[in-house]
Amino acid sequence: MSIFAVKEQMDALVAELNQHTYNYYVLAMPTIADYEFDKKLEELAKLEKEHPEFADPNSPTQKVGGDITKNFITVKHKWPMLSLGNTYNEQDLRDFDERVRKAIGDDFEYVCELKFDGLSISLTYENVVLVRAVTRGDGTQGDDVTSNIKTIHTIPHHLKGDEIPDIFEIRGEVFMHRAAFEKLNKEREELGEVAYANPRNFAAGTVKMQDSKEVSKRPLDCFLYALNSEKQLFKTHWESLQTVKKWGFNVSDHSKLVNNIDDVLEFISEWENQRFKLSYDIDGIVIKVNSYAQQQELGFTAKSPRWAISYKYKAAEVQTVLEKVTYQVGRTGAVTPVANLKPVLLAGTTVKRATLHNADEIIRLGLHENDTVFVEKGGEIIPKIIKVNLEQRKSTALPIVYTNHCPECETTLIRKEGEVAFYCPNDEGCPPQIVGKIQHFIGRKAMNIDGLGDETIEAFYQRGLVSHISDLYFLKEKADKLKTIERFGEKSIENMLKGIEDSKQMTFEKLLFGLGIRYVGETVAKKLARGLKNIDNLAKASIEELTAVDEIGGRIAESIQDYFSKPEHLQQIVLLKAAGLQFEVAENEVLLQSDKLIGKTFVISGVFEKHSREELKAIIEENGGKILSGISAKLDFLVAGDNMGPSKLEKATKLNVPLISEEQLIEMIEL
Ligand code: IVH
C-alpha cells in the first residue's frame, strides 16, 4: 500500500469510528455492533503503531467514550452494588412506606438525599489510605479505576481523624459540575470533537479513560453516600454520614433526617424547583430507612434493597411550534443551527429557542417546517428538542434542509472530513468571526483586558473602529471618535485605554491563546510557549519541531503552520509587536505545568533523597503552589526531609500542619 493510501485509510477509520461513537453516546443510536467497532479500533491502533507520523492525537484510540477500551482490571465487589427501585408519583411512595411499616412497624426515620446524576463508585480504604476505586460494572464486579479517581480533588487519599476502621468501603457518585461540562464540551466542539450529551456521559467517559493525566484535566467531583464495613460501626445511616464527613469525605449538606412519608414528600417538592439552582444535575431523591438494624430487618430483593427507594423527577417537557431554524456563526466560523420556537412556559422560564447542535441533529429529528416539537429542560440551561409530534405535521410540510451558505456573509460552507460542524471559510470578511476573534482576544482567559467587554467590541466594529486585534492598540489615537459612542463616557474611555495599555505586559502564553489559532486552546498555548519560547520560533517551526513539543499532534501542528502561512496573520503580528506586546517567554516567568497545587501553601525543610530543596521549590511553583517562609496555622503542608530542625517539627505538630514526604508531594502532582 502506498504511504498516501495508508494515511487515507487511517483518516477514513478515524472519521468512521468518530461517527459511530457519536451515534452511540450522543444520539444513543448505535449503528455498529460492539464487536465490529472493536475490530475497527484495533485495526486503527495497529496502523497508528506502524505509522505514528500519521496518528491523529485525537484519534478514537486515544479517547474513551464509555466502555470502548476495556483495559482495566476487573474487581469483584465485596458487597454487591445494587440499584434502587424507582417511583414517579406520590402513590408509589406511599406504597413503599406501607411496605416498610408492615415489616418494621411505625417507629422509624427516613433520610432524604439528593439523587446525584453521575456514576457510582466504590472506594476502599485500608489503614486510612485509599487503596482501590472500582466502578459499579454489572453490580457484581467492576473496573479498577483507582488512578483516575485519585485525580478527583474532593476524594481524600489519606483520611484524618480517630477511630477510623482499618478497612472499609465507601460508595458515592462521581459527577461533573454543569459549568465545567459546558465549558469543556464547548472546547471539544471547537476542536471538532464529538460533544457529550450531558454531564453524566462526560463524567462516565472520563472515569473510563486510559490516561489519568487526561482525566486530571477534566474536573470531576464526588459525593459519598453509603458506608460498608465488616463490623457495624454505627447505629444509623445519618450518624455514619456525619462521621465520614469528619474523616474528610465530601458529603452533601442537603440531606435531611425526617420522621414520616409526609415529610419525605415535602422534601421532594422543595427540591423539584430548587434543583435547578444547584451547580450539578440531580435526577431525583433517594429515600433510605435510617436505622441499620431496621435496614437489616427489611433486607433485599434480588435487585435492590427494601429499605431504600428513589423518586425520579420528570424532565419538564412541553409541546410548541418550530417557527424557523436560524444559524449562528461562531468565532471559528462554525455554523450552529438554532430552533426558534413559539414562546412557551417551561420549568418557570419562557423558552423561545432550543439548540440543534449540528446538521446531523436536524436529520436525526427529521425536522420539517412548522413541526410541533417536544421540548425538554433537564438540568441544562438551554432546552432541547426531544422529538417531533408527527400527528401534528401537515402533509405538505417540507423538510428543513441545513443551509449551504453563511447566513452572515453568504459564503458557501465547508465541512471537513470527519467533523460534524459546517464552517464558513471567510474568516477575514465574515462579521461575527471578526468580532468573535477580537472578543476572544480580550477575554478573561486570554488578554483579560479591563474596561472592555463584548458589547463594546461589537459597537466599535459597527463604527469601523476595530476590525483586527491590532486595532485595539491604536484606539487611543481615535479618542475623538470614541467619545461619540453612546454611554461611553470619559471615565470609561480612560479605564479602557489603561486596560489596553496594561495588557501589553500579558504573558506570551496568554497572548498566544488570544490569537485564536484553531486547536490552540489554553493548555496547548502553554505547551507551545514553553517549548518554543517565542513567536518567531513558532512561526518557522517545522511539523517535526512542533510535534516534538509535549502533547502537540499532527492536527495542531498543521493548524499552526496554516495560521502562519497567511500574510494577514503575519501582518497582525508585526503590528502587535510594534505596539509592544510580549511575544516571548519572560526569563523569570514561572511557567505553570499544571494547576494541581493552586491555592496550596508549602514549607520545605530538611534534606531530600531525590531532589534538592531548590528543585522541590520549582516543582511546587510550577504546579501553582506557593512557598511560605515560616510555619503558621495557614500552612497547608510541610514537606519534610531528613535532619529537619526539631523546633519546626514541634511547631508543625502543634498547629496540626500535615507533614508530607518528597514522594507524597510528587504523587500530588502526578495524579
Ligand atoms: S444509595 C443500594 N444514594 O443511584 C443502592 N444512590 O438507582 C444504594 N445515586 O447506583 C445507593 N445518588 O449510582 C444512593 N444519594 C444517593 C444517590 C445514589 C445517586 C445513584 C447510585 C445508585 C443509583 C441507584
Automatic annotation (TrEMBL):
* Domain BRCT: from-to ranges: 592-671
Q: Which domain of life is it from?
A: Bacteria
UniProt-listed GO biological process terms: DNA repair; DNA replication
- EC number(s) for this protein? 6.5.1.2
Q: Which GO terms describe its molecular function?
A: DNA binding; DNA ligase (NAD+) activity; metal ion binding
Q: Mind telling me which InterPro entries this protein's record contains?
A: BRCT_dom (IPR001357), BRCT_dom_sf (IPR036420), DisA/LigA_HHH (IPR041663), DNA_ligase (IPR001679), DNA_ligase_CS (IPR033136), DNAligase_adenylation (IPR013839), DNAligase_N (IPR013840), Hlx-hairpin-Hlx_DNA-bd_motif (IPR003583)
Q: What's one Pfam family the UniProt record gives for this protein?
A: DNA_ligase_ZBD
- Name the needed cofactors: Mg(2+); Mn(2+)
- Record's GO cellular component, any one? cytosol
- Annotated residues for binding of NAD(+): 34-38, 83-84, 113, 136, 173, 288, 312
Keyword Ion transport listed? no
Which of UniProt's keywords are assigned here?
DNA damage, DNA repair, DNA replication, Ligase, Magnesium, Manganese, Metal-binding, NAD, Zinc
Name the residues that bind Zn(2+): 406, 409, 424, 430
Q: Which reaction does it catalyse?
A: NAD(+) + (deoxyribonucleotide)n-3'-hydroxyl + 5'-phospho-(deoxyribonucleotide)m = (deoxyribonucleotide)n+m + AMP + beta-nicotinamide D-nucleotide
Q: Which residues cross the membrane?
A: none
Q: Where is the active site?
A: 115 (n6-amp-lysine intermediate)
Q: What class of enzyme is it?
A: ligase
Function in brief:
DNA ligase that catalyzes the formation of phosphodiester linkages between 5'-phosphoryl and 3'-hydroxyl groups in double-stranded DNA using NAD as a coenzyme and as the energy source for the reaction. It is essential for DNA replication and repair of damaged DNA.
Q: Which family does it belong to?
A: Belongs to the NAD-dependent DNA ligase family. LigA subfamily.
- This protein is called what? DNA ligase
Q: Which gene encodes it?
A: ligA
